[in-house]
Every structure is written in structure tokens, then in C-alpha cells.
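Hello again, I could really use a second opinion on something today. I've been puzzling over a protein and I'd love to understand its fold better. I'm sending you its amino acid sequence along with the C-alpha cells. It would help a lot if you went through both lines with me. I've dropped the whole record in just underneath, so have a look.
***
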Amino acid sequence: METFKALGVDPFFTGRLAERNIRTPTEIQKQVIPFLAAGEPVIFRSATGTGKTFAYLLPLLQQLLAGEHAGGREPGGGFGEHAGKSGGLRMLICAPTYELCSQIKSEADFLLTGAAESAAGAAAELRRLPVPLKISLLIGSAAMNRQIETLRKEKPAVVVGNPGRVLALARLGKLKLGGLKILVLDEGDRLTADELRGETEELVKLLGPARSRDGCLMTACSATLSPKSRERLLGLFGGLSSAASPRIIETEEQEILRDRIEHWAIFSEGRRKIQSLRSLLAAVQPKKALIFSGRGGQPGIIVSRLQYHHISAAGLYGDMDKKKRKEAIDGFRSGKIAALVSSDLAARGLDIPGITHVIALDVPADEGPYIHRAGRTGRAGKRGIMITIGDAEEMRRLVRLEKKLGIVIHPRELYGGKIYNIREE
């Protein structure tokens, strides 16, 4: 059985992972970590919940801490006393949403927690441990003046942010990109989709003149990767990475959808969907239910209706301010809120433990959004239920997705406050 140690992950990080009872790398981590550790660019796709964030954070943070680009690596691969002291921005991680950026920073902070205290220790067994890296979060919904002050004072080695805000700060000369050595595009398909493609391409072009002789190591990942998004990502890599072309690694994404998630379909006329949702929540009494509505403005209406009927619910959608979005996520994470109603904003990368049910009030036109939605449950080896409430046309669309994804969607019926199986021919 392959271990993190066998992949070259430093004992400091394996110790941090063990605190979460993470002892064995996932398949995507086994495939990606060695290439990134060797400085090879990678585009990789794997199902939600398979550890993509750690697949790139572990080798890339280790490179920074070991002074890979500053001559601080000691023989034997440990973290040297000069690790992390090269100064300036070294790694930029871009993601499309505030929630995902915050989550990535949280995971990086977790991996590095204890570094400062450990590095201060004098015992021989602590000498391999890293000095801390400073990480800053730069997202569009926060005050720019405060972010500028943070950059001035902290001079972070790692920045996590969305392309728009990173570009704005770079244009103002407040974010120096000249020493950048690593660029990560998390949810690369979304970052190269039409609505964000311009900003992402402009950012990569901005990095071009600042490249060192050895180039900038680049990686991108997502749970879905269409031919169009793959082509666009390859175009970005061609101008930035020192390698001729990145490695493309893809793992079987239907495994979790098939094995850990049970899929239900409940018919409802469009005008009765919110009522059907209320009946469903009353019947299943979920500990944590994440509810999706792709229609503009609908999440707020749904939340109001649920709250009117004394259901603990909150909303999460694009036009909310940062404070309210954070309050909604924190309440849902802590269990104070049982139902979080969202647009597809939250389907991308949001990792909240203990989501027992995902409920969709519409059916997407293709499989990508369905995969991202369903992937919010059935994580970390647990099981979950994905429920779609749809009208006749949506049920026909759902059948097509069922065949395309190779999953089984079981029809259910709500009646008298209970859920009944419908006999499947």
C-alpha cells in the first residue's frame, strides 16, 4: 500500500495529515504528487471529494518550504534553515469563488499550523520542520485598501484569490509578480469558461514578462474537464510553463457517484416545487441539506418560504455581501442551520463535512453541474443522497444524464409526510 512517505511527502506534513486521520493517499494524489514534486506541469481531473487540493498543496508547499527556488534545500530532502526565506510572492492559487478561495487558504493554513512553534524548538528531531509561510486571501468581495495594507505589512509568499482581484492589485503595482514560481488554477474549467476566461488569460499574459529562465510551474485541476476547457487550458500552459506540454491525468469520476451516493428523483410541477421541498425536508429530517436552484433570484425566495414555515434555512448566492455569505456558511457548517439554499456558486469546491443530502430544484443541461452538485455529499468515505425535484421535461433530461454518467437514479414519491419507493420496471 502506497504511503505519503513513499511519495516523498515530508514527515511534518504526514504528521499534520494524521491529525485528520488521513494516512493513505487517494488515487489522484498518488498520480499527481510525484510530477509536481519533480517540477512538471500537470492538468488533472478527479471526482469531488478525492483530495485534489492536497494533491497540489502538499508538493508545492513543500517546494517552497525547502527553498526549492532559493537554494535552501538540504541533502536528504528535509526543510533547511533558510527554507521560505527567499522573500516575495512565490505561489499564486486562483479559484473562481470566494468560498473556494477561503477553503483553499484554510487547508494551506492547516498544513502549516505549528510550523512556527516547531521551528523554534532546539531538539534535533525538530530541525527538519519548516519556518512558517505567510498566506494572504485576495478576493473581490473584500475591501481593497485593507488587502493592500496586508500585502504591504505581511509580504506573503502565497496568495489565494480570484483572477479579477489579483489583476486589479497587480495593475496598481501593489501585488508584485516578478518572483512568482508557481501558478495554480483550481477549478480550471470554470476559470476558462466564457465569463472568466478573459481575466484568466490576461493574468497569465501579465506573468509572461516576469518569468524566470526556468519558467513558472503551472498546474490546473477540476472535477470536470470538457474538451473545450482542456484546449483552453493547454493554450495557457503553452505560454507560461517551461515544459513543452503538461501531463494530463484523469481518474474515474463516476466511482464516488455510483458507490457512495444514492440518487433519487421526485416529480413535481414547477409551481409546487417549493411545497414539495418543504414536504421532503419534513419527511427526511436531514442533518445538513444543501439545496440548489439555478434560476436567478430563486434562492432568496426559497429561503423566505422555508423560514416562514419555521425551517432553519439560509441562502448563499452571488449578489450577497461577504459578511452574509460567511454567516450562512458558518451557520451551516456548525449545524445551527439545517438547510443551505444556493445557486451553483456553492457547487464548486465547497467542502462542508456532514452534508447528508443534496437537493436540486432543477436539472442542468449537461453532466458537469450535476457532478459538482452531487459531489458535496458522500465525501471522506461517507455516504450521501442526491435528490432531484423536477417537472416532466426535467425528468426526461435527468434520464439522459443517468445514462451518460452510468448511475442509477431511483424514483421516489412524497405522500402523507412519507417517502415511498416507486416500483422500477
Q: What stands out?
A: Residues 120 and 328 are 38 Å apart (CA to CA). The radius of gyration is 22 Å. Residues 68-86, 115-130 have pLDDT under 50 and may be disordered.
